[in-house]
Automatic annotation (TrEMBL):
Belongs to the universal ribosomal protein uL10 family. Coiled coil: none annotated. This is Ribosome assembly factor mrt4. InterPro entries: Mrt4, Ribosomal_uL10, Ribosomal_uL10-like_insert, Ribosomal_uL10-like_insert_sf, Ribosomal_uL10-like_sf, Ribosome_Assembly_uL10. It comes from the Eukaryota. It is found in: Cytoplasm; Nucleus, Nucleolus.
Amino acid sequence: MPKSKRDRPVTLSKTKKKGREHKESIVNGIREAVEKYSSVYVFSFENMRNIKFKEFRQQFRHNGRFFLGSNKVMQVALGRSASDEIRPGIFKASKLLHGDAGLLVTDMPKEEVESLFNAYKDSDFSRTGSTAVETVELKEGPLEQFTHEMEPFLRKQGMPVRLNKGTVELLSDFVVCEEGKPLSPESSRILRLLGIKLATFKLNLVCRWSPCDFELYRERLDLSDVETS
């Protein structure tokens, strides 16, 4: 009887024992999930928020598993080419694991998975170093949303402010952040104080593999790019 590809030993990069064992655990977990569930989805994410992702993941707790981590390790688990893939055609999904990406292995009907992913997004405060998606500017004049106790802190953030009869006053127009530029620690703090959420945590489906078919979700992706081994 021919030996199954799925039983083939895995060679991972040379690492410390603990790191190697962790990688092997991920590989084995993915392969076990592929055996158990019927479909594999590759998804990308923007502005990951761990708590929010944990909440989203709960919707699949009874019929699926998520995997995040090293794309290379996940690729090894699925197989990087037709010669070492663990199921026929699954290497196509492996090829699309790059950037901020993860795997979902599930029995949930395709329509339900698509609906959950397409409907999900959550706004949050932008973190230092992230790119501003719009320009935020404060106009000269009173800043009544801040109490007088906040005036020293605002000055430390670089804002030209003073107290005028107990009211925080901005002495000149002030650009908090500019679209397309990274946020400084000060800009991030000011946006949080203003209650302005510029980051959106989103999950985007990239592709779906099942024993019967393979489907791409992104319009700019070409099936021919992933069909070659």
